[in-house]
Amino acid sequence: MKIQDPEQLRTWQAAHKFKLEVYRLLKSSPAASRDFKYVDQVRDAASSVESDIGEGFRRVHAAVICQFLTYALSSLQEATTRVKDGVDREHFTAAEARLSLVLGEDCKRYMKNWWDSLQKYLPPEKRGPFRSRKRPKKLRPKSTESTRSTKGPSESGSATHADAVDSSDSSDSSDSMDSMDS
Hints:
Layout: H1 10-27, H2 30-33, H3 36-57, H4 62-88, H5 94-118, H6 153-156, H7 161-168
């Protein structure tokens, strides 16, 4: 069976369930309903997941579909972060928010599966892991005599921008989705 509409995609269906659960969660909370800015932000993020998936479905090229999946993933991350923030604000309990977060994880898994299935249609240089953004390249100092010395930044008394980037970059703090093997 050929899929004709985005509503037939499991990814879209998961995003739709997530959105409806987030809406239900917000509607059931009197405290959240008084926080207009918060409610608008959560609703916008939750609805963007579904619409980005739908818009990506209508694209012809795998690379463009992957780009829209990246947008959807970013919106999903925003929405789940804001749901967690709602718990912190005491708009609802962690138990009340649990289902929306579980549905968000389901949606992320479906997006990853679709992403993975598209990789074979991309040229090798465009293939990559499913994540919300590319890791920034580490900046390296321009080659000059002063940076070619054998002394490190702490020994020479001056740190370069690359040193600041290197010291703050940690492989454990990656917010990418490289670890989504489940």
